[in-house]
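If you are new to this repository, start here. Below is one unmodified record pulled from the training split, so you can see the exact layout before writing a loader.
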Amino acid sequence: MLKFLAAQPACTVAMEACASSHYWAREIARLGHEVRLIAPDYVKPFVKRQKNDAADAEAICEAVQRPTMRFVAAKSEEQQAAAIVFRARDLLVRQRTQTINAIRGHLAEFGMVAAQGPSHVAKLVSAIEDRDTDIPELARPILRLLVEQLRSLDERVARFDRELARRAREDAEAKRLMTIPGIGPITATALVALVPTAQAFKRGRDFAAWLGLTPLQRFTGGKQKLGETSRMGERTLRRLLIIGASAAVRWAMRKGSTADPWLARMLARKPPMLVIVALANKMPRIVWALMARGGTYRAPVAAK
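And here is the target side for that same chain:
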């Protein structure tokens, strides 16, 4: 395909965004062509009846000519390489959760139950290693293998966490982002690695919408109704921001006060879960401001 495109005059090459599309975008761009990547969800409305290669190609050609079409920014090799650590860590965390659930489910069959959460697994592990517990000897060796698997996953996740902390210490932009309450080393390095560029968004709300943290809009007959968050964007960053917002809200509730007057007003009027989502919606706007304009986070001062 590259030989074919190399023989063509400079033109616009459009394709659906996928795992390998960023590689092809870089290679085709080196030949002098303008590459446009389109999210598959934006191409689907232009597919007529049957789905086949010809219909998909026609739909892509139609979509790329729309004046209001939104395109996916092509990632560099460095950006994709930096993102691997988060994908790999997510995989190990999922495997650790599966292993914990397996241990919990197997021991529940013998009447041994522990509270939910990774911090309570130690009780189940000690029951497996204690020969005085009522676990059949036929099952004990298999359960020990699961315990070994769990410990190995814990060690590997901790290794990823140390690598992310090292990257956060060495990256100036990640250091600035960590001044925002609720954003730690993992979230800061994820933002630096996974966000294409702050200039790709006109304002902070566009960045929040890209993450899927803005409410769904239902506008008809001149009446507007906002629904739940869209959850239509970058799921890794969205999850990390919600976790960070949850930590910030729970810390403020535990202390009984907060330096942020907006957060204090929200906690006084709204339930905690709603405040967490609202704060997760607000944090990307602050992140975009720091990434686009520089500087560090300054806590708001209550009006006197």
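Two things worth knowing about this chain: The CA atoms of residues 116 and 198 lie 39 Å apart. The two ends are 66 Å apart (CA to CA).
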